[in-house]
Amino acid sequence: MSIQSVEDTKVKAFPVKPAEVIAFTAKARRRISPLAIARRLATALVPPAVVILILLVVWQLACSSPTASLPPPSQVWNEAYDLIAHPFFDNGPQDIGLAWRVLISLQRVAIGFGMAAAVGVALGALVGQSVWAMRGLDPVFQILRTVPPLAWLPLSLAAFRDSNPSALFVIFITSIWPVIINTAVGVRNIPEDYRNVARILRLNQLEFFIKIMVPAAAPYIFTGLRIGIGLSWLAIVAAEMLTGGVGVGFFIWDAWNSSRLPDIIVALVYIGVTGFCLDRLVAAAGAFVTRGTTAK
Amino acid sequence: MTAYLKLDHIDKSFVRGGQVSEVLRDIRLTIDAGEFVSIIGHSGCGKSTLLNLIAGLTKVSKGAVLLEDKEVDSPGPERAVVFQNHSLLPWLTVYENINLAVSKVFGRTKSRAERHGWIMRNLDLVQMAHAKDKRPAEISGGMKQRVGIARALAMEPKILLLDEPFGALDALTRAHLQDAVMDIHARLGSTMIMITHDVDEAVLLSDRIVMMTNGPAATIGEVLSVPLARPRRRIELASDRTFLRCREAVLKFLYERHRFVEAAQ
């Protein structure tokens, strides 16, 4: 009898509870939603804003004496106001807004990095697939990847006899190594079962590459691409300082030669923000492409 | 009449670092078309290796696998495998997973509409049509295995090879899937070879049970025919004398004559 009654109360209690919970969350969500979004935005934006403010104040105090060698933020704002406020002006061949310069540098990165991504994934797949290719190529890659970007520049200038292809080559050679190495690791980690599925279906090399290898190794490939695009952005700014042209790197060099320090500082901010956006862009592309891949 | 599938004096040994380890020795077995054969044995006895040999995923060291009198030594869709851990590609939906197989096997012979119909028919067969747009991560283990079976069936194989297909599932789900496989076997009349270490499962599903001795150099110890009429119902069989006799025979083989010796590992 007592067991019966216990079971009864349990049975009664069960359907009531979830119903309450569901109603509560539904109400709660509708009410809190805008507030929650505001709170989340605030937690994301307020701390960096405070830090930036503090840094600006310290910088202003540190550089406001007349003997300071670097300009304080107020001077940067006043002297480089045109660059800050009008990123898209165009007054002739060498007098263009910073956004145009960044776009020109980005275009170079797009070409150089695009080639590096294509060749890197293909080479990485080869190295990951074949034990002998790995034994032969891996030591070479490991040595070459430590060569700093600019060390390639004289050689590529000699080979291409032109500054633009040389800059592209420097981007290519800088960013290809992490793509190759990460792709190879990803390919080596493809589960044996996926390979068996491909073998039973008699997929040919190309079908295996497109349908199994690339999606299975995608998380690794995108890690490589993310490192690679960061490196190529580092490389292009440095390469442009030496090769000239209209990119943002050359702008800094030019500003230095004509002692326009505020311009350099504005350009640095542009470069930093652009690099950050590039990194996030590749990360977002990776998250989009590999959705569902990582979960088993 | 020659056998449908013939395992002809197969030896298999692996060489690793100069050390030869003999896994299978002198495997002789013939299987008729439409037969359901289980291979049972203790873990490490090489039963998965045997299945891989039939699938062509591993090459035999000596002897041959003959399917309709033709030697097979490489994998192909006519010997489809249902893997223990389903092996669905996680970036494809259920439908796309099966489509990968169907478009490869029937890309030339079936039109797009026919292929779609064929995919849906195989999904219906395992009662998974409702989840065709889900990804493997969004469905349960039993459902994944159903899709794995559908993918294998969609290749229209001459032989369906099941590698401990229900090993990773809970008892209730396993029973459901065993019934599903029995139903499919009855409807399609396909030839199936299943690796298992579950005695009840082997007796319930099989026409014959192949019992393997312990390794190294394992071989077929005994082959037991299961003379139970089909369709079989697990509840009725629970007290059936033939069922119990077969069950006892397998248990005696596994736990009396070929007891698993831990030291052998």
From TrEMBL, chain A:
One of its GO terms (molecular function) is nitrate transmembrane transporter activity. GO terms for cellular component: plasma membrane. It is found in: Cell inner membrane; Cell membrane. The keyword Ion transport applies. It is a multi-pass membrane protein. The chain crosses the membrane at residues 41-62, 109-128, 140-160, 166-187, 208-227, 233-253, 265-289. InterPro entries: MetI-like, MetI-like_sf, NtrB. CDD domains: TM_PBP2. GO terms for biological process: alkanesulfonate transmembrane transport; monoatomic ion transport. The keyword Ion transport applies. Residues 102-282 form the ABC transmembrane type-1 domain. Keywords: Cell inner membrane, Cell membrane, Ion transport, Membrane, Transmembrane, Transmembrane helix, Transport. PROSITE patterns: ABC_TM1. Its main location: membrane. Belongs to the binding-protein-dependent transport system permease family. Probably part of an ABC transporter complex. Probably responsible for the translocation of the substrate across the membrane. PANTHER family: ALKANE SULFONATE ABC TRANSPORTER-RELATED, MEMBRANE SUBUNIT, NITRATE IMPORT PERMEASE PROTEIN NRTB. This is Nitrate ABC transporter, permease protein. The gene is ntrB.
Automatic annotation (TrEMBL), chain B:
Keywords: ATP-binding, Cell membrane, Membrane, Nucleotide-binding, Transport. Residues 5-239 form the ABC transporter domain. Its main location: membrane. Pfam families: ABC_tran. GO terms for molecular function: ATP binding; ATP hydrolysis activity; nitrate transmembrane transporter activity. One of its GO terms (cellular component) is plasma membrane. The keyword ATP-binding applies. It is found in: Cell membrane. InterPro entries: AAA+_ATPase, ABC_transporter-like_ATP-bd, ABC_transporter-like_CS, ABC_transporter_ATP-bind, NO3_transporter_ATP-bd-like, P-loop_NTPase. CDD domains: ABC_NrtD_SsuB_transporters (cd03293). PROSITE patterns: ABC_TRANSPORTER_1, ABC_TRANSPORTER_2. It is a peripheral membrane protein. Belongs to the ABC transporter superfamily. This is ABC transporter ATP-binding protein.
